[in-house]
Amino acid sequence: MGRLEEQDFDEKRLARRNRRKRNQLLAYITFGVILVALVAGVAVGIHFLRKTFSQFGSENVQEEIAQEESGAEENKVIETPSEPSPEELEMTESDVMSEVVGGILTEMSIEDKVAGLFFVTPEQLTGVATVVKAGSSTQEALSKYSVGGLLYSAKNLKSQDQTQEMLKATVSMCKYPVFIAAMEEATDSSAITATLGGIERVDINSSDAAYTVGANIANAMFKYGFNFDIAPDLNYTESGLYGTDADVVKDITCAMARGLEESGITACLHDFPISADTSTKGVSDDASVESLSVGAYEVYKNTITNGGAGAVMLSNVSLPQVTGDDTPVSLSQKMIQEELRGVIGFDGVVITGPLYEGAITEKYTSDQAAVAAIKAGADMIYMPEDFESAYQGVLSAIESGEISVERIDESLFRIFKIKYADKVNQITEN
Question: Which single residue of 78, 111, 198, 258 has CA 20 to 30 Å from 64?
Answer without folding.
Answer: 78
